[in-house]
Amino acid sequence: MSDPKRPAxxxxxxxxxxxxxxxxxxxxxxxxxxxxxxEDADGRVRRTGPGPxxxxxxxxxxxxxxxxxxxxxxLEVLRDASVGLTGTKPACDRAQCGACTVWxxxxxxxxxxxxxxxxxxxxxxxxEGLGSPDAMHPVQAAFVVxxxxxxxxCTPGMVMSVAWAVKTHGQDLEAAEVREACAGxxxxxxxxxxxxxxxxxxxxxx
Length: 206
Fold this sequence. Notes:
Largest sheet: 5 strands, mixed
Shape: elongated
């Protein structure tokens, strides 16, 4: 028997839960634009979109001004004809395979999971920025010597991860550290042992 002095508990139903969630979402959607406008008026927020916007960054050591829509990833913009850095490969588009690995402010990241406009004012390095066929980076040269390249699709991202490990550890680089650095890079051809040997070779030359 219920206590007449205890206040009645509100009954939570699926319908009331969904109605409440919908109201909260609608309120947030209405408030966000006004909040952004207020901050923008004070100069504290720069809004982009919905159309293309221009932004500047340091790309492979050179200042560049690029154009991108807010929805475009760094991978898409790098491979665009106006930029032409197609060494960075599209594969899973889910940050799961490592084929599109680049450096963002010196740290390896999957370019498919970074919005291009997030790179504004930052430094981006792609595999083309490491070296050229005429002046290869020690890691690129070691990949050739150690036969760490087969189909080649994973190679640019693998090279970027290995080069980061070499840069970080130098001549003290060990096999376990190479495997850790490349943990997010998948190779369907199975060249992992050759990649490790290439990394250790390159580390001796830095």
